Amino acid sequence: MVLNIVKNNQEVSDIAGCVKEVFGNSDVSVKKDYGISVDIAVIGENGLHSLEGLKELESYFNDYDIRIW
Question: Please, which contacts does 52-58 make with residues 24 or more away whose CB atoms are closer than 8 Å?
Answer without folding.
Answer: 53/22, 53/23, 56/22, 57/3, 57/18, 57/19, 57/22
